[in-house]
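Supplementary notes for students who missed Thursday's class. We covered one full example, reproduced here. Read the sequence, then the structure, then the short commentary at the end.
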Amino acid sequence: MPVITNIEDLRVLAEKRVPRMFYDYADSGSWTEGTYRANESDFHKIKLRQRVAVNMENRTTATRMVGIDTKMPVCIAPVGLTGMQHADGEMHAAMAAKKFGIPFTLSTMSICSIEDIAAHTQAPFWFQLYMMRDRDAMVRMIDRCKAANVSALVLTLDLQVIGQRHKDLKNGLTAPPRPTLANIINLMTKPRWCLGMAGTKRHTFGNLVGHVKAVTNMKSLASWTNEQFDPTLNWEDIAWVKKQWGGKLILKGIMDVEDAKLAVASGADAIVVSNHGGRQLDGAPSSIEALPAIVAAVGSQIEVWMDGGIRSGQDVLKAWALGAKGTMIGRAMVYGLGAMGEAGVTKALQIIHKELDVTMAFCGHTNIQNVDTNILLPGTFPKA
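Structure (token representation):
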């Protein structure tokens, strides 16, 4: 086993262990992948101010996200097909998050179901919902969330239409894998993954198959999904979801100040500045570039979080300094999961937390609540 010291080490190991189509699914963006790359690279432009001769004892990174205590301002983002990175992947990620002390978010397009997560972790978790045309199916899904003790609903707003991801098309991405010659040959090189998948019954989209009308298998699911993602989504629909749910509501996919103001008016509890990991509108700004203007416009009225490009604890600290009261990590979690299962997710969280804690100390702080733009070198970070 190689020595794992950073998220990149986990990525390299995941690339070796996860079948090509599923690794590429997580590690790709739309079109030219320009926004996908900018999400990560724009963090590197932001420079930190090192301070010395400051008492660095008794440090804390603890905070709260929509009223939930967290060990650091990080939660696990919803990622579709997580259970294809590693057998029962969503369950392993949820258990790792619970033990570490941060929230976990389950995707609508997960392999493990809402009920699977509820059965394998006592911690309340969050659920990410897509707006579907079938409102009866959405009501039933929301009711299942209530029954499973889901503590917040994350409504993703930026997937009314789907951005083209070239790698998925070239790989013939399906779940379970399509038995093409190239895919079979690739699977033969992943014995650890195949053995894990042979040991679980969870190979399809657990939140949908058997739970929505006329969806009984992968073929019928594909047809239903193509018809069901609702391109007519508007703010009245968000009000409908809020009424049906009645609990904490987080709106994900906000990249514009005007939309942020509308989100506040909708009565949401938090918004996530996110471009869907660079998987939707290629050519959009990075999330960290869009963050300051949105914080300036609505940060005093609502919790503003950000998602996209976070690969280190330093990235988390920079986002916090620019006003994000929380961050979401998707790929960093996926790399850990694909590399080593639950232990890999735990390792990813440990890496991020240690980097966050030590960097905060180097910048002269012992409590993350006191960190602001003063830790950043003037002229190196995006302004509102």
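Commentary. The chain has one domain: 7-68+127-200+236-375. The CA atoms of residues 36 and 278 lie 4 Å apart. If anything here is unclear, bring it to office hours.
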